[in-house]
């Protein structure tokens, strides 16, 4: 079996982490680089990635995540926070980066800028928030797969109070919203769920070739 597929079969949503085991700085950097390389619509990456190692801060966050043990027991807690809204600066900042990175005159990118703005700026505030949140889930998928490839355990988590997380982490004043969490670390031997067989739809029921 392909090693990548083997690693995806190995991963599961870890319910209990071994608090004594820490992800190395090198592996964490690889994981974060892989996440930063995730695809996003137009390449805009309308989100930020928060890596929380501070134990006191995580203990403060735990009640806002229904008291789940992964928040404090995992090696690190990663918060993917989407931009709550945006204006033309989202496109302008991105194309400034494109211009500097690729050595392309800014004027040559004006047509692309106008195109993106014509699609994104008319969106309602609620639609903007939904769109940016969706981008975080692309990054989430890449993070989970990269972690599995490194044999690092993860648990994606939507079971938390966004408003409380936003307040504790000071996200609202930065125009951000905690969209999804990922506990990162190594499974505990006591986590019985690691022995469950993976359950997925059959390819026949999931995939249609046209």
From TrEMBL:
* Keyword Transferase found: no
Key words of the record: NADP, Oxidoreductase
Q: Which Pfam families match?
A: Nitroreductase (PF00881)
The similarity annotation says: Belongs to the nitroreductase family.
Q: Which SUPFAM superfamilies match?
A: FMN-dependent nitroreductase-like
Give the signal peptide, or none.
Answer: none
Disulfide bond found in the keyword field = no
Domain named Nitroreductase is located at: 9-186
- Where are the membrane-spanning stretches? none
Q: Which protein is depicted? A: NAD(P)H-dependent oxidoreductase
Cite the CDD domains for this sequence.
NfsB-like
């Amino acid at each position: 079996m392909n090693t990548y597929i083997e690693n995806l079969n190995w991963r599961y949503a870890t319910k209990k982490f071994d608090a004594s085991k820490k992800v190395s700085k090198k592996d964490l950097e690889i994981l974060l680089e892989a996440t930063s390389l995730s695809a996003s619509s137009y390449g805009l990456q309308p989100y930020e990635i928060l890596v929380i190692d501070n134990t006191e801060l995580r203990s403060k966050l735990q009640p806002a995540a229904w008291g789940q043990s992964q928040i404090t027991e995992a090696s690190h807690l990663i918060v993917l926070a989407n931009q709550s809204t945006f204006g033309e600066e989202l496109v302008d900042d991105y194309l400034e980066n494109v211009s500097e990175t690729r050595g392309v005159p800014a004027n040559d990118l004006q047509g692309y800028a106008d195109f993106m703005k014509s699609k994104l700026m008319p969106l309602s505030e609620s639609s903007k928030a939904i769109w940016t949140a969706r981008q975080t889930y692309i990054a989430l998928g890449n993070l989970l797969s990269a972690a599995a490839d490194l044999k690092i355990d993860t648990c994606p988590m939507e079971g938390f109070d966004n408003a409380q997380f936003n307040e504790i982490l000071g996200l609202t004043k930065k125009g951000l919203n905690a969209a999804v969490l990922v506990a990162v670390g190594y499974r505990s031997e006591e986590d019985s769920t690691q022995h469950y067989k993976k359950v997925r739809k059959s390819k026949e029921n999931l995939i249609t070739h046209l």
